Fold these 3 entries.
Entry 1:
Amino acid sequence: MINDETKRKLREMAMDPLIKALENQEAGGDTYLVMSFDERLNLAVDECYTQKHVERAKRLIQGAKFRYPSADVNTMYYENRSINRNEILALANCSYILKNTNLIINGYTGCGKTHLACALGKEACRRLYRVRYFRMPELLEMLNIAVQTGYNLSKTVKKLANYDLLIIDEWLADNPSDQEVKYLLEIFEKRYDTHPTIFCTQRKVSDWHIRLGGGIMADAILDRIVHNSITIDTGETNMREFLVAHPTLA
């Protein structure tokens, strides 16, 4: 049994989970008494590691600012929808992040684009990736404020570029200005082949070029997004209306 002084030292070293693990073993009685010191130490370390992992994942989920923090790929409704359960569960292992593959989630209003993106983002947080969700108007406003207030724009762009996974909702719902297109190019240039982005949009990829101004910068942005991407079509079913009509599935 560890004494109070040892507990104090462990707390000073921010090792509270180890104290809890050892106390759990003490309360476990004969189950742990028959184990060797090495076996008990290994179990305590495993318990601490798991606890630390869970706590960090929770912090990452909170920091991601998901629109739907309760979204989850395991409880999502898949029946009678265009999305494929097996495809989504395969994406949930986050291999697309390791491959720096962008995801383009396309569909009509209310068909669950944002919910799906948040669910995939949460899985990334559980695997300890740094994720951030933005609506496109919020993203552009942040960049414009940085310019207007004299804040270092390059620092803002760098921050956005460094997230392991960036989720942009309402992508190209409105046409960005020439200056905003320039901001976007800077972000995607820095994220290119380094970190993936999830785009939630009602706009088909074929419409993106003209909505981005139709010039050289539009070409450059598309090149950095589309060439290494997976498109997910969420179909036409309005999930808001469907779940209102079927409340037991919500």
Entry 2:
Amino acid sequence: MKIASVYDPSFRPYGRVLAGYDTAALIQAMENIAMPGEGVAYEPSIAALEDCAIFGRLQNHAFGGMPIQLGMCWGHNTKLNCLEYHRDSEINIGASDFILLLAKQEEITDGMLDTAKIQAFRAPAGAVVEVYATSLHYAPCQTEDTGFRAAVVLPKGTNEAKPVFSPVNEEDGWLTAKNKWLLAHPESSEAGQGAYVGLTGENIDIAKDI
């Protein structure tokens, strides 16, 4: 699979790289958190990361003063498995390089998305990468056998328990947490746990491409 840089023009429909942020202290705080033994871990809010000065800058500048949370997704991953989206941008900052597998919300047809539409982008360590609300994404992929650590910045409350309601449309069935709509690949563990299966085609694995 071709892997482009987040600085390549082909990334522009999916997101952008934000300038003007010092990420050194955040990266150090991320590296102090131990890797999971296997698989991927995610915590939406981590005090040690939110104590870094960049938290206030991201809240006031990148999110225009809206309340945010700063957590991390980290571990070992080379597969797609699922795609999710939010009603707002997500910001990722890697302690090392990482790869995003992305598609566009507009490419969902009749509740399904063909994984042949997915594009891969490599983000260098320390880059502040904004992924637009209309970009489908999921856990980053590693570029090295040692795994990856990626800060995840979202509006406060995202990924908490979803609201209780009676569905009124198809999209309501994709909601798996607060502000999180998810399409799972049938081979994923999420599908096995009851998540909506909305991906067709190959469950992309970039292991051979890194």
Entry 3:
Amino acid sequence: MELIPTFIGDEAFRPKVRACIKGYLDISDNYSLSIGLYKEGRIFVYSNSDDVFSLQYDIGSVSKTVTAHLMLYLAEKGLVELDKEVCCYIDLPRGSYPTVYELLTHTAGYHNLTPIEITLPSLLSHGYARKNIYEDCTSKKVVQCLKKRQRVANAGYGYSDFAYAVLAVVAENVSGCRFSELFEDFIQNELSMKKTVIIADPKRRTPPAADRGRIYNFWNWNANNPYVAGGGLVSNLADIMSYLSLQITSNEKYITDAHKLCWASLSPNSNIATCIGWHTYKNSNQLWHVGGVGTFRSSVIFNKKRQMAVAVLGNAKGVASANVHYLAKMLYSEIKINKIKFYKVKE
């Protein structure tokens, strides 16, 4: 059943939340912010745009959570086994390689690994963040890099874009389908996120944020690029809230299995741990992920037990962009302690 959103106004939030939102938007008229809140089966929306659902945001690394569900879906279909090394699905030299599960949970030892062979051409031409640093990558390049980088035993948690590019190659090989096509088909037909795509229509895409005349370009993606698995999706608030609702209400195994804690990710030096594709905290029912490419930032949080979720999608430059995750965490806490006046409907 499709959930009908209720639009709420500034009056729904306490002064400290309003101040955070105002501080973000007052910097530039070109900044945009879209907020979705899920509370016990209802969706509430706040935005500085009157046409919030037409705005398309690059969601960056939140894409990894969708890739994780896709890999679990392929596992259900018997096309891949999570505990098998990737050399079972990719033609690689003899050696020790990470398992599919280790890649999904960022425990493969590839943390802080951005293969220089992949990123150097773009970095030299454009600099970091001004353009997609992975724009020239192909599955062939990922496999070449993988041949030089085998498994690191007992690596623990270490976040990795490269790990998800490898997963895209695995998915291509076991399905016989180009990853971008497989990805979009899964997203739109299994997850029912009908407006979420890899290559967006420029006429409908939210423009990059501008401030004092300086504009960054979109992170454009080639359909053959395996790094789309880790950060290539463009979506809108309606689809993101539908996706979070699914996390809370679905009993599909490829959804619920992603919420299981990865014990190998636990560390005495950090409160952060991982599930499959998702992050969590020790002794917490809160699952979350953040994303960022170019001027776009995204933050999603949900708690299945408490039947609540938050999504904040932002488009801003500089230090303001970091406030998206700060605001998402603040809103999550406000819902948790019942401090949001959901009855304050926007006029």
